[in-house]
Automatic annotation (TrEMBL):
<dbReference type="InterPro" id="IPR006008">
    <property type="entry name" value="YciB"/>
</dbReference>
<feature type="transmembrane region" description="Helical">
    <location>
        <begin position="7"/>
        <end position="27"/>
    </location>
</feature>
<keyword id="KW-0997">Cell inner membrane</keyword>
<feature type="transmembrane region" description="Helical">
    <location>
        <begin position="100"/>
        <end position="119"/>
    </location>
</feature>
<comment type="function">
    <text>Plays a role in cell envelope biogenesis, maintenance of cell envelope integrity and membrane homeostasis.</text>
</comment>
<dbReference type="Pfam" id="PF04279">
    <property type="entry name" value="IspA"/>
</dbReference>
<feature type="transmembrane region" description="Helical">
    <location>
        <begin position="39"/>
        <end position="59"/>
    </location>
</feature>
<feature type="transmembrane region" description="Helical">
    <location>
        <begin position="166"/>
        <end position="187"/>
    </location>
</feature>
<keyword id="KW-1133">Transmembrane helix</keyword>
<keyword id="KW-0812">Transmembrane</keyword>
<protein>
    <recommendedName>
        <fullName>Inner membrane-spanning protein YciB</fullName>
    </recommendedName>
</protein>
<feature type="transmembrane region" description="Helical">
    <location>
        <begin position="140"/>
        <end position="160"/>
    </location>
</feature>
<comment type="similarity">
    <text>Belongs to the YciB family.</text>
</comment>
<keyword id="KW-0472">Membrane</keyword>
<feature type="transmembrane region" description="Helical">
    <location>
        <begin position="71"/>
        <end position="88"/>
    </location>
</feature>
<keyword id="KW-1003">Cell membrane</keyword>
Length: 207
């Protein structure tokens, strides 16, 4: 199967989130009536986000022929919690969704450590070749990160304004994840292993 262009995956992953953000910002302070029911900007944005994420996930699956388990889990939780928010016209369920996702990820990674199974390595080893110790360290750090993000999400949506939570969800959480990944550059270098491509590269080690 032909690999999609490099920009396709980021667009499919970030597109639904940006659509949610734009709908919320454009409709903020207004109510929309659908089938005789009034919906706030947040609920309307949630209603648009659910099919947008489902479509983006379907397109990615069609293009690559595979989906990561975390992508599937995220889609299921979005449908469940987002659907409850729309059905009950209550934004709290969708705001709790990131907490549930991060707790699930933390639990999966924590169990993989206890069971001595490098599930993170199985998912990311092609992009990030490291030895077993490196993967265990990264797994522990990511499990702790997801726990911290779950707590942070609960604090923000329960104590701050709806607009603040939307900005936090759209920009804050991805930025934290990016900083975390960049902050572990030393771990990647310390536990890197040489791949077949590196061994066959005559220029390897000359720079």
């Amino acid at each position: 199967m032909k690999e999609p262009k490099p920009w396709v995956k980021p667009v499919l992953e970030l597109g639904p989130v940006l659509i949610f953000f734009l709908v919320f910002i454009l409709k903020r302070g207004e109510t929309t009536v659908i089938a005789g029911q009034e919906y706030s900007a947040f609920i309307l944005a949630t209603l648009v986000f659910i099919p947008a994420l489902a479509l983006a996930t379907l397109i990615q699956w069609r293009l690559t022929g595979k989906l990561a388990p975390m992508q599937i889990a995220t889609l299921v939780l979005v449908i469940v919690f987002g659907g409850l928010s729309v059905w009950l016209n209550d934004p709290r369920f969708f705001k709790m969704k990131p907490t549930m996702i991060y707790l699930l990820f933390a639990a999966i990674l924590g169990y993989s450590l206890l069971a001595r199974k490098n599930w993170l390595q199985a998912v990311l080893s092609e992009a990030l070749p490291m030895d077993a110790l490196g993967w265990r360290k990264l797994t522990l750090r990511m499990a702790l990160l997801f726990l911290a993000l779950a707590v942070a999400n609960e604090v923000v949506w329960r104590t701050m304004s709806e607009t603040t939570w939307v900005y936090f969800k759209t920009f804050g959480l991805p930025l934290i994840l990016f900083v975390f990944l960049m902050g572990n550059a030393g771990l990647y270098r310390a536990h890197a292993i040489q791949t077949d491509a590196d061994e066959g590269n005559p220029d390897n080690g000359r720079k």
